[in-house]
Amino acid sequence: MHDGIELEKKGVPTAVICTEPFRPTVEMVSKVRGMPDYPVAYIPHPVGSLTDEQLRGRAKEIAPTIRTLLTG
Q1: 64 prior amide bond cis, ω within 30
Q2: What total number of domains does the chain contain?
Q3: Does residue 72 register a pLDDT over 90?
Q4: What is the mean pLDDT of residues 48-64?
Q5: CA dist 16 to 31, 66, Å?
Q6: How much of the chain, in percent, has pLDDT values that exceed 90?
Q7: pTM of the full predicted structure?
């Protein structure tokens, strides 16, 4: 999150992916870091217990959102 915001401030397109339960933290951090509307791609929680196949599925689902975040 911090790295993404700092890179964006320097003009480097970034895409941060976070799981839903961390949305309040992300919103607070983005406000504190001076980018209250910083866009983040959210995926369902958890990810640590998913199989490789399930992770690939999540990646495929979120890919269009990531593409939009990176290209506007």
Answers
A1: no
A2: 1
A3: no
A4: 97
A5: 15, 8
A6: 97
A7: 0.88
Residue 68 in tokens: 């939009």
Q: What's the CA gap between 16 and 23, in Å, rounded?
A: 12
Q: Which residues lie below 8 Å from residue 19, measured CB to CB, with a gap of 6+?
A: 42, 43, 44, 45, 46, 47
Phi first, then psi: give them for residue 18, nearest 5 degrees: -145, 155
40 bridge partner residues: 16
Tell me which residue has tokens 């980018």: 35
Domain extent for 40:
2-71
The average pLDDT across 40-49 equals 96
Question: Mean pLDDT over all residues of the chain?
Answer: 96
Residue 54 identity: Q
Contact assessment for residue 33 and residue 5, using Cβ atoms and an 8 Å cutoff: yes
